[in-house]
Request: fold
Amino acid sequence: MVANWKRSLTEKNHPEVFGKISQEQFFRQYPNLEKGLPKDLDSSKKYLWDWRPQGPIIGKYHKDQTYFANAYSRPHRQTELLLVKYVKTEKEEKEIYNYQIRFDHLGGRATHEGTMMDPSEPVVLAIGCSWTIGEGVDQGEDYPSQLQKAIGNQWQVYNFGFHSYGPNDLLRELEENPQRFDFLKGRKVKIIWIFLPTHLDRMLCSTRCLANQDLEFIHHKPFYALRDGVPEFNGKFLRASSLERQWMLGLKKSALLSFFNIDYPLRLRDRDIQLVTALFSQLKKRISQQALEVEDFSIINTIPFIDSDKLGESLKQSGFRYLDYGRYPLEILSSRLKIPYDNHPTPEYYWILAQMLKRDLF
Reply:
């Protein structure tokens, strides 16, 4: 999915475009990371680091088969969910991960300290996708839990991430349930959204996205179009009524475009960036209606992509803090940053992320 927006321009072939930060600059900005990771943080025996099969097939299942991990199946509050992801060949099957998510009384993943213990303290609201909820890591290893440990108890960190979420999903949820964040009343709030280039597909869904059956979960996501500068719900991507979306639904069936792997649009257009910015702005407005004060809304990019600077500038002009962590050489701290056969972050990655957020936001 990232390739949809990078096209042929990759970080490996054109590092100067992505402005990668040097090791020296990295440690100058984050001197606490030069000491390395804690010795008790070690996932070397937790995942399939040394298994190299031929032709693996990857799948996911869960204990409760009535539950599906997508943006429209958030479990009820105060429940537990067991998720297992596996990889198999013709001869054997192995687990990529096997972990349990405990949802608290507010409907988010409980942090290690127990969420929202004191209703008077300020809140860090961590919102986003599986990188926020912590897919593939155990309780207390997700970044909101590790951030809570890093900053202490002056702020209460609340993990409201969910699998496959984009800003449009959360905005639609708040439109349908305006009281979703009513626990923020009377509280000062910092908001953190961990951003991935795949979120662009979830908000915009190009013709390549529409034609890809593996991305069917995106096809049923809420589609928004700008109306007088404000995002307006326009149905789901497969049923959107705008003329451009109808044209794109027809274009996705083109055998010629499929043969040459051509995508429309080829790059982020100005109006696409305006829509993305407007979605985040509307999300901020919705949360502000519940909170006493939104002190800061930080959008943290984690993977380099070609239009990062352009999008970041638009977000900054609209009052957001945009930090591009995709430019930092995190791999110098650990070779175990992404779960094998899955690519979600490991506990080591989340610890690094928590330390960087502590330095930049608190």
Remarks:
- The chain is about 30% helix and 20% strand.
- The first strand starts at residue 57 and ends at 62.
- The radius of gyration is 20 Å.
